[in-house]
Every structure is written in C-alpha cells, then in structure tokens.
Input
Amino acid sequence: MRARDLLADFPTVALDTSVVDAARMLADQDLPGLIVVDDTGSPFTILPGTQVLRLAVPGYCQDDPALARVVDEPHADAFLQALDGRTVREALPRQPRELPVTDPEATVLELAALMARTHSPLVAVVDGDRRLVGAVTLQALLDRVLAV
Amino acid sequence: MRARDLLADFPTVALDTSVVDAARMLADQDLPGLIVVDDTGSPFTILPGTQVLRLAVPGYCQDDPALARVVDEPHADAFLQALDGRTVREALPRQPRELPVTDPEATVLELAALMARTHSPLVAVVDGDRRLVGAVTLQALLDRVLAV
Output
C-alpha cells in the first residue's frame, strides 16, 4: 500500500485567499487542514487545522496565554472578523519548516512518520514536477491500516 | 463566549488502553484526537490525532524519513499490528510538553491560541479539581466563531 493507493482529490487555497475564507473552508468542509498552492498550482505550504487557526491569532497571544486572557470577551469573540481581509500570504509565519509533502511511492509507514513528525493530519502528494496529485488524510490512512 | 459554552462530552481512553484500540477509536469515531485519563479520571495527556499515530510509529522512523523508506511494503502495511497489545502508557513519549487543557472560563481567543501553540485540534476543559468536564474541538470553535 502506497500513497498513490490512498490519495484523494483535496481542495486547495491560494496565497491570496483571505484567512477568514480559509477558516470557513476548513470548517464548512470539515477538513483536517489546507493545502496552500502557489501561482503554478504547486504546494506552497500545508497547514494543519490548528495552524490555519494560528494565522488568525494575534502574535502577542500566540506565545503568552496570559495575554490572550486579558482580551475581553466581546473582542475575543470577534478575533477572526478583526482580520478584515488579511490574506494567507500576509499571515503565514516566516520560519521555514518541514512540509508534509511526499511522492506517490511513499509507504504507509512513511506517511505515518511524516504526519507524526510534522503534526499534520494531511500530507500532500506531488509528482516529479512538484505538481499536486492529491492528498492523504490521517483518517484515510488509519482506515486502511486498521483494515489490514 | 467561553469554553463552558463550547464544550461537549468527549470519549476518553485509559493509560492501559492498547495503542491499536486507541487508533481504532480515533478512526471509527472520526475524532480530532484523544483524551487520555489517569486512574482518577483526570486528563493525563491529550493526544492530537497525529500524536496517536506517533505512538504507533517505531522510534527509528520518527526522526529519519530515510529509515521509514527502507522498511518494505508488507512490513510497512502491518506497522500498527506489529505493536501487538502495546499500551498507550508504554508508548507515550517521556518528554513533558504543554497540554491543551484549560478551564471553563477560557475565551475563544485563549482556546484558539492554545490549539495553535500546542498543535492540538482538541482542548480538554477541567474544573478546579482537575476533573474533566468536556472538550472543545477545533471544528466546534470555528463553527461558533465564524457564526459571530
């Protein structure tokens, strides 16, 4: 069993998608994360659901829980709306990190190790030209591995 | 809007649950993660889905993708079965880390910051005696925040 046997089409967002639209897509389609593609359609980054949320959380709240607590309830409730059109490109963190991207020949063990290491319940599968051919989700992987 | 308004009952696993049963619960109930409780019913740890998978991935594959690739396909397919009754307690990593646990008064911004920081799409909510009163999922949080 290889990535090619497990992959499925997966919706993508562009770098110019707004963070609110990205969050809405994640919620409405109950996705484990999002694949952000560049202008050529290649994966630019993969964002697990928690890191889509991170795009929307003000920087001063991300590292200090005490600072998140001082924001009053009405402002906290509206934190997503406060982004006001901010795009994924503008909100992405600068630091590079290992991306959960692999090729169609990856085994289930490679996929599992990649998901665990990158904390991503979603792996993008690309061909030799780095074109996106689909994605493997944690659910799809577990369903197949448990059926062995 | 506070954690108490968003929380719902959430299934738990014990430290003596087998890793395979934990993975099956995650897959069958389509959960974003698992709450592991100790003998008193208090949260011992919270495992995002990717970290449940991590319990099942051999140590030598976790940090080196090349080593995962040398395992042949039949053995890779059976990696979960190879655990053979290993319990969650036996598989948990030793290093302490910040747990996604909060109190019922946490705002949605605190919940979002906690999920982003701990890479957990699941936050356990405990009372003053650290008893589990429920959990807030990333989906529940986004659904409510997007509806504001």
Remarks:
- Chain A touches chain B through 55 residues (CB under 8 Å).
- Residues 55 and 93 of chain A are 8 Å apart (CA to CA).
- Chain A is about 40% helix and 20% strand.
- Chain A has one domain: 3-146.
